[in-house]
């Protein structure tokens, strides 16, 4: 831990994000709860409303933000890497470096790669940087949260008991790290489970996002994605963040 705290890349990462007004980190206790869809759709909604927006996909095992938005991820180079823009969103992930190859790395390898990516990506001036965090409560999310001092964590869960229980562990971990938790969103549910969770752990309930049977048809098509129930529900949630 001492080695990571002294790492000069941490200060470099903070400099790269120094002109970002707000950093929203979408996190979940486990994979498969729709975190990537909600983070990608949020970035699209911010951009569509005229906000300068960035989207960083840190889910190295299953990077999918580019697929959800139908974007080709790339970058230029000038004292670091400059993300290409798509629909007004600056997008960066591991995809330009790994392509379609599987990421067969251990937790510490992923943590180091995330730190490297944060240290070399030049975001410039942004209103919002939306980050799709690694799922779970492993080493990578715990160490990354320390780098993102200004990060506001948006926790995503489903009504599933498995999801709720893993989110409880995530909330306790984030509270121990003393990072800001903006609140919890219940995806594909009526919100009752997340409301109970928010009361139990004294965090804000942000709202629920309905299940949308037409989501699959909107994947890769930003204009259709903006018309889904998901985007309509998210729009209300983002207004109170």
Number of H- or I-type helical stretches: 12
The arrangement of helices and strands along the chain is HHEHEHEEEEHHEHEHEHEHHH
Largest sheet composition: 8 strands, mixed
Count of all domains? 1
**Distance from first to last alpha carbon:** 32 Å
- The fraction of residues in strands falls at 15-25%
Q: Architecture, CATH level 2?
A: 3-Layer(aba) Sandwich
List keywords for this structure.
241 residues, alpha/beta, Rossmann fold, eight-stranded mixed beta sheet, two-stranded antiparallel sheet, 12 helices
Brief sketch in words of this structure:
The protein has 241 residues and is of the alpha/beta class. It is built from 12 helices and 10 strands.
Can you walk me through this structure?
The chain is an alpha/beta fold. The chain has a single domain, classed as 3-Layer(aba) Sandwich (Rossmann fold). It is built from twelve helices and ten strands. The protein has helices spanning 2-6, 8-16, 35-48, 65-69, 95-98, 107-120, 139-147, 161-177, 192-201, 215-218, 222-225, 229-240; strands spanning 20-27, 53-57, 75-77, 81-83, 85-86, 89-92, 126-132, 151-157, 180-187, 205-209. The strands form two sheets. It has an eight-stranded mixed beta sheet, with helices on both faces. Strands 3-4 form a two-stranded antiparallel ribbon. Helix 9 (192-201) links the parallel strand 9 and strand 10. It is globular, with a radius of gyration of 17 Å. The two termini are 32 Å apart.
């Amino acid at each position: 831990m001492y080695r990571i705290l002294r790492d000069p890349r941490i200060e470099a990462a903070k400099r790269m994000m120094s002109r970002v007004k707000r950093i929203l980190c979408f996190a979940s206790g486990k994979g498969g709860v729709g975190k990537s869809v909600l983070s990608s759709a949020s970035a699209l909604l911010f951009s569509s409303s005229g906000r300068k927006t960035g989207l960083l996909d840190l889910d190295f095992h299953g990077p999918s933000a580019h697929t959800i938005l139908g974007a080709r991820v790339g970058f230029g180079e000038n004292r670091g890497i400059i993300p290409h823009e798509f629909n007004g969103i600056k997008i960066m992930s591991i995809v330009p470096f790994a392509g379609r190859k599987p990421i067969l790395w251990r937790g510490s390898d992923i943590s180091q790669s995330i730190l490297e990516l944060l240290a070399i990506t030049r975001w410039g001036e942004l209103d919002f940087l939306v980050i799709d965090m690694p799922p779970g409560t492993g080493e990578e999310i715990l160490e990354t949260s320390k780098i993102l001092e200004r990060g506001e964590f948006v926790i995503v869960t489903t009504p599933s008991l498995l999801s709720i229980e893993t989110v409880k562990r995530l909330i306790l971990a984030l509270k121990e790290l003393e990072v800001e938790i903006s609140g919890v969103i219940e995806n594909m549910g009526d919100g009752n489970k997340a409301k109970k969770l928010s009361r139990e752990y004294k965090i804000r309930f942000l709202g629920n996002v309905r299940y949308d049977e037409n989501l699959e048809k909107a994947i890769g098509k930003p204009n259709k994605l903006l018309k889904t129930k998901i985007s309509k529900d998210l729009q209300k949630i983002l207004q109170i963040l």
